[in-house]
Amino acid sequence: MITDYSERLIVQEVAPRDGLQIEPKWVETADKIALIDQLSLAGFSRIEAGSFVSPKAIPALRDGDEVFRGIRRQAGVIYVALIPNLKGAQRALEAGADELNLVMSASQTHNRANMRMRCEQSLAAFGDVVALARGTTLSLNGSIATTFGCPFEGPISEDRVLQIVDAYLELGMQGISLADTTGMANPRQVHRLVQRVLSRVPAAALTLHFHNTRGIGLSNVLAAYEAGARRFDASLGGLGGCPFAPGASGNICTEDLVNLCEEMGIQTGIDLPHLLKLSRQLPDLLGHEMPGQVAKAGRNSDLHPAPTNLPG
């Protein structure tokens, strides 16, 4: 199969939600808003700006209402909120979210750890959210956590994932996300499963969410892209991880992904120099270095002066 690398790759920025949710240092609401406002100027069409979960569960994002009400919205940008249940959906609707992201795990054990309920209960609760969204402008995205493997249960059956995809579509979800929650995916597995899911879901409605836990996140992006996927989550600086999954390190790094695309001639519409400037500000904001690489090494086009002592 020959891949057409001229097809645009859509990047959904998730640092304000997935990136900040496990940070031990509290990020002030004004700083969250400022970060989102700068990301809104970078060329993204989609930003996951926050969540409406219990503040006891995710204290770092307890200001979701204020964040959504305070951001300066840019035309053409969809601002997404992660919500766990009907109460969260109601809060997100009131705060002005454009899209709701609902999450259930393919793994029963992880869903019980993350959502405090069995998968069947999660699906039943999603029906109430679908009913709330009916008649509004809200769009709904259903994410499947631990799609490619669970740190508690191990491998996840592809048929199990497809059953959840079908259940989401039957409920009325407009979008589907396949999430590699703890970076257990490999490129061959990704390529095969993406092809199967795309037989049910158009590429415009499918998002891949990879973590770089074991160093192959960008390889998995390319495998998914070559299988026909066109939309990917990424996090500025490589921030993020699931607080309910052992060993869950950061998401794939947005600027590293955009840099890869630029080197390969894949269009993203994202302003890479702007991203690098933002990423280099994160250590001061969060108090630690970021795992992203391009912000440290620079782009291939960032050349250096030749040494002055070269032999003639």
CATH class: Alpha Beta
N-to-C order of helices and strands: EHHEHEHEHHEHEHEHEHHHH
CATH superfamily (homologous) name: Aldolase class I
N-end to C-end Cα span: 49 Å
User: Any guess at the CATH architecture?
Assistant: Alpha-Beta Barrel
What does the largest sheet look like? 8 strands, parallel, barrel
3D architecture notes:
With 312 residues, this protein is of the alpha/beta class. The chain has a single domain (10-295), classed as TIM Barrel (Alpha-Beta Barrel). It is 39% helix and 14% strand. It has helices at 15-19, 29-40, 64-70, 86-95, 108-115, 119-133, 158-171, 187-197, 217-227, 254-264, 272-279, 282-286, 294-297; strands at residues 10-13, 46-51, 78-83, 99-105, 139-145, 175-179, 206-209, 231-234. It has an eight-stranded parallel barrel with strand order 1-2-3-4-5-6-7-8, surrounded by eight helices. The model has no long low-confidence stretch (mean pLDDT 94).
Brief overview, please?
The protein is of the alpha/beta class. It has helices at 15-19, 29-40, 64-70, 86-95, 108-115, 119-133, 158-171, 187-197, 217-227, 254-264, 272-279, 282-286, 294-297, and strands at 10-13, 46-51, 78-83, 99-105, 139-145, 175-179, 206-209, 231-234.
Q: What are the salient characteristics of this protein?
A:
single chain, 312 residues, alpha/beta, TIM Barrel, eight-stranded parallel beta barrel, 8 strands, 39% helix, 14% strand
